[in-house]
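Let's practice the habit of predicting before peeking. Look at the sequence and jot down your guess about where helices and strands might fall. Then scroll down.
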Amino acid sequence: MKRIEILSTPYEEGIYWRKGAKKGPEEILRKFRETREYSIYNDNSIDKESISYVNDLYLSPYDNESALKNIENSILNSLNNNNFPICLGGDHSITYAIVKAFSQFYGKGDFGIIQFDSHTDTFDDIDGFKYHHGATFRNIVEEGYVKEENIIQFGIRGQVRKDSLHLLYSKKRKTVTMKELVRSNFDFLSFIENKSIPYYVSFDIDFIDPAFAPGTGTPVPGGASSFDTLKIINHLTNLNIIGFDLVEVSPQYDNSEITVLLAANIIHELITSYTVEDDKEVLKEKFI
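Done guessing? Here is the structure:
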């Protein structure tokens, strides 16, 4: 079993609307440390002291290239040390740097991405800037780090500009709208045809309805509930998951800390489901 390593990446220079995501990692970790050890859903406990933490990355707000490179190097170091990286953002542009590191470790095109989000993040440059949080998965595909047919996006909804419609849906990339996901009772596994490859999971907090997670810069009504979200997290173990990020939590827009509390619980449930021993009786199916 690989060791869990939680990496804080307080980078928000990819945001072009409401900033605040750089405060996300410290607030999520604060709430995570307040959670109790045992998960009823997973019938499993975690030892938080055994988890490795990286929260001293220098991410310059003046040099985007060096900041993204530092994230990439930190992730690569984690993988080389046989860790399972959980990265806390920051805005969604950090996923580009993370996936770049994974492609060096696993090989370009040798793994897939499962994205939970309200946006596809496949849009054009903004004012000549390519690596913003609305273009992350377009950048990843165009630079060959992951094959487009191995990217599955869940929860897409809301509105886009008419000039972005050609980028919204692709014949190769699988885009599952929130409407489709609800119809399936959030059985996201049924949409994944190729279960034989490893997957990196990228989770944007705006996948969740703002009634449950208002603390984000790009809230979109009509999202998942907290229950549906935790159900998804606990079913990721049916796949070969090699890493995870949780992005776009902006505490300044949070009400009564419900977003950071949910984010902390997402991390807790991910870890307790990931670290369940093979010979341990797991009770989680009774709660579905």
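How did you do? Residues 64-80 form the longest helix (17 residues).
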